[in-house]
Amino acid sequence: MGILAISIDRRRRLVNSLMTSLTAICAIFATLILLIIIGYIAIQGVSSLSFQFLIDTPKPVGEGGGIGNAIVGSAMMTLLAAAIGLPVGIAAGVYLAEFGKNWFGNTVRFIADTLIGIPSIIIGIFIYTLVVLPMGRQSGLAGGLALAIIMIPIVARTTEEMIRLVPHSMREGALALGAPQWRVSLNIVLPAAASGIATGAMLSIARVTGETAPLLFTALNSRFYNFYLDQPMSSLTVQIFNFATGPFEVEHAMAWAATLILAGIILVINILVRFLTRKRF
Amino acid sequence: MAQTGAIGDKIFRSVVLIAAASILVIVAAIFYMMAQNSIPTIERFGIGFLIGREWRPAQEQFGALPFIYGTVVSSLIALFLSVPISLGIAIFLVEQAPKRVARPIAFMVELLAAIPSVVYGLWGIFVLAPFIRNYLGPFLQDYLGWLPLFQGRLTGIGMLTGGIILALMVTPIVTAVVRDVLEAVPTTQREAALALGATKWETTRIVLGNAASGIAGAVVLGLGRAIGETMAVTMVIGNSPQISASLFEPANTIASLLAANFAEATDKIYLSALIEIGLVLFLVTFVVNALAKLLIMSVAGSANSAKHV
User: Inter-chain contact A30–B171, Cβ cutoff 8 Å?
Assistant: First the structure.
């Protein structure tokens, strides 16, 4: 009996340490994958990066060139998306936090979360049928709108959460002083949640900057600098896709360099947000 | 003063209400526009569209089965690989690692989710595909080559590569949800188990049992992401509409079909076919995501899900 108990006990401890090491291996594996991916981007990207690359336009296929027009296009469409997506998303988030404790609020919350999970290529098809077909051509406008739709539910849900973190006493204090509800929301609650909302906004901007699928057939691509929203527009992501899937070595190298820029922007935003929010919460 | 307050309240409330309602309008409009634009093929092919195996746009033959098959199989490979790893990471972060170890690792796993799809695709083409062609593929053929799954020519581009890339992309999402779900299990349960003499692992098993429906939700959410993931898969799966038992053969998914062909579809019936298959993808991911959300809510409460974007 005693021996049996000891051997069972030993087995339990063995299983325990085995499983503990297995979970640690999983965690190490994931961090290694991240480091390998970032390592490849850094090494491959740096080797073909130059100042000229950042301002040139792509030359005819296979002859190199740069991604200046793609950087401008990405920036313009992301700005358009932010100009539409942020106000609508933040306002929707204010509704959910301030008035959303009813069936309508619950429905919006549920649908917003579901919309976040809808493949972004579906948003691309939607904008194609809504904007591209009637206009008769692809455009930066269509691309920016597609990105805005991706932004809205994300911004709405993070805004709601940030507003919910504002202490009730602040709201009550303002209401007790006779301020109407809208003044309380706009002048007390929103400023208190502002930095949280701003970090959420930055993350959503990082997210749409990396989107490719919704731009493929809405903004299409362009070989030239284009500052008009009613014309097809290049973007970093679509350009990377085209470079990477083409047959030319030169363009593969350009894909890595463009990825270094893109991933750099996105990772820096993410790390910055992490660094900024760590102190506060 | 009170008067302006009342009017201001009304205006303010309507503005934010309209913004919130716009989310519902968007989803309804997506459904309407896609249904409207796929009427030609729905009327012409009916159910045959979904079960047909031949996809030849030039001959106006549209059978979507190879894409449905590719989507299902690549997603299953992704879940098969990523769920155990995600569970392991989440258990390590919540149940085992000390805070100062867990925090940086958790952040690095979150960064994996921030990397854009097209970057995974680029990495997949130039790093993962050669690795599978030169190392993993020959290894699998040496030891499991008698299985039809691992027969055929090794190019590095194909179903398996697509599934592995998907697994890498789904892992951070599943991990994040499982973490939240585990953290929502009350500490008293762990204390009770430990007090009864359970080992750390036995305690974890009890916690996992209590979090089961939330973990199921995390897996379903991962499934939704895998089904809809587009760019990375397009770049490594080979884009060939065939149904093959071999995981080394090129295949195609609904999302990658759309990514690769939509821009060229000028002919009305072809466009309708692509939009119809997009509608199928929309409806499936909508249902899958809604299900995931319900499962996660049953454990972790409703406030958490916006974090997993």
Answer: yes
Residue B69 lies in a domain: yes
Record the tokens describing residue B174, joined without a space. Answer: 């599943």
Phi, psi of A58 (to 5 degrees): -65, 135
What is the interface size between A and B, counted as CB pairs within 8 Å?
296
> pLDDT tens across B258-286, in order?
999 998 888 899 999 999 999 999 999 99
Residue B145 has pLDDT above 80, yes or no: yes
Q: Is B262 on the interface with A (CB under 8 A)?
A: yes
Domain of B139? 65-307
Distance from CA of B97 to the nearest CA of A (A): 8
Which residues of chain A have a CB within 8 Å of the CB of B6? 180
CATH code: domain of residue B209: 1.10.3720.10
Do B194 and B224 touch, CB atoms closer than 8 A?
no
Question: How many other C-beta atoms can be found within 10 angstroms of the C-beta atom of residue B301?
Answer: 11
* 3-state secondary structure at position B61: strand
Determine whether the interchain pair B30/A118 forms a contact, defined as Cβ–Cβ distance below 8 Å.
Answer: yes
Asked if ipTM goes beyond 0.85, one says yes
Question: Does residue B60 belong to any structural domain of this protein?
Answer: no
Select from A20, A114, A252 the Cβ nearest to the Cβ of B289. A114
Q: What is the pTM of this model?
A: 0.94
Number of folded domains that form chain B: 1
B225 within a domain of the structure (yes/no) = yes
Q: Which residues contact A5 (CB under 8 A, 6 or more apart)?
A: none
Q: Does B57 reside within a domain?
A: no
Q: Round to whole Å and give the CA distance between B237 and B230.
A: 11
What lies within 8 Å, CB to CB, of B65 at 6+ separation is B50, B51, B52, B53, B243
Q: What is the pLDDT of residue B306?
A: 41
> Which CATH architecture fits A51-280?
Orthogonal Bundle (1.10)
Q: Cβ distance A24 to B96 under 8 Å?
A: yes
Please name the residue of chain A whose CA is at the shortest distance from the CA of residue B276: A125
CB contact under 8 A, B289 and A212: no
Cα–Cα distance, A44 to A90 (Å, whole number): 39
Give the model confidence (pLDDT) of A208-232 as tens digits: 999 999 999 999 999 999 999 999 9
